[in-house]
Amino acid sequence: MVEYAKYVDVTKCDGCRACMVSCKNWNDLPAEPQDFLGSNQSHAKVTANTWNVLSFIEHENSKGNLEYLFRHSACFHCKEAACVKVCPEEALHYTDFGTVVINDEKCVGCGYCVQNCPFDVVSLATYKDKHGKEYKKAQKCTMCTDRLEEGMQPACVTVCHTGAMEFGEKDKMIQKAEKRLAEIKGKFPNANIYNPAGVGGTHAIYVLAEKPSVYGLPENPKVPTSAVIWKDYAQPIGKMMLGATTMAVIGAYISNKIFYKEDHGHDENGGGSNE
């Protein structure tokens, strides 16, 4: 099966935010008024209603000069996605394009995908039913899979006027990234290709001018061990013995215990930090 990927060259981005606007328009996402962040950045991070954010990073380069770095921030669509592995309802799944999408009818808003995503790109959106009762559903970038199915490109790619983004066969996108890396190494000695192996590689391949951490990205993201054990070992065996519904309940209970223990542990050590 042919794999596809979005290629993002941050060195060509000029921060115009056209990708953000096109994402909002195509996916019919509501506006989210934000407090002033003290910079040109409109949103601190992606949210349930803003799946694509243009990040502005103030950075002191190797020559001691202050410069702005830009990064198109959205879901990476990991080949081995933690969100898919931890979902007790199997609401998250892979498509033929390698993208990761959410089945709204199956999602129960448990939030395990949110807590396990190494890139912090999944969020819970709040809705109200006809009786006014609130409920939650996980939401994130879909890489415009609905457009891909019609032979079109992702909305963000189509509006990028600098050519910083492309979409195509993954092998070709990696080759393009490698060629571009060779071209910019003289100007950006720390330049690298971001396609982390710890999540099996991603379907959003980045050419970064600096180390991933400069852009707020994890250097070596990995699928949590607990998620691997649950999805690849415990769940298949349990389904054979107990049935899928029972295993979903057990999975929710186990995940809740794990997350409670982690949060409790953070509190005992002076509290954890949130981005």
Structure description:
- It comes from Mesobacillus zeae.
- Its cofactor is [4Fe-4S] cluster.
- InterPro entries: 4Fe4S_Fe-S-bd, 4Fe4S_Fe_S_CS, FDH_Electron_Transfer_Unit, Formate_DH_Fe-S_su.
- Its main location: other.
- It is found in: Cell envelope.
- The protein is an alpha+beta fold and about 280 residues long.
- It folds into 2 domains: about 5-75 and about 155-215, Alpha-Beta Plaits (2-Layer Sandwich), CATH 3.30.70.20; about 80-140 and about 225-270, Alpha-Beta Plaits (2-Layer Sandwich), CATH 3.30.70.20.
- The protein is about 30% helix and about 20% strand.
- It contains 8 helices and 10 strands.
- It has helices at about 20-25, 80-85, 110-115, 145-150, 155-160, 170-185, 225-240, 245-270, and strands spanning about 5-10, 55-60, 65-75, 90-95, 100, 125-130, 135-140, 165-170, 190-195, 205-210.
- The strands form 4 sheets. The protein has a 4-stranded mixed sheet.
- A hairpin with a 5-residue loop joins β6 and β7 (about 135-140).
- α7 runs antiparallel to α8.
- The longest helix has 25 residues, at about 245-270.
- It starts with a strand and ends in a 7-residue tail after the last helix.
Summarize this, please?
With 275 residues, the protein is of the alpha+beta class. It is 31% helix and 19% strand. Strand 6 and strand 7 (134-139) form a beta hairpin.
**Distance from first to last alpha carbon:** 37 Å
Low-confidence stretches: 264-275
Helix/sheet category? alpha+beta
Overall strand count? 10
- Tell me, briefly, the overall form: globular
How would you spell out the order of helices and strands? EHEEHEEHEEHHEHEEHH
Number of helical stretches of at least 4 residues: 8
Beta content: 15-25%
Keywords: 4Fe-4S, Iron, Iron-sulfur, Metal-binding, Repeat
Pfam family, one: Fer4_11
Domain 4Fe-4S ferredoxin-type: 4-34, 66-97, 98-127
GO cellular component, one term: cell envelope
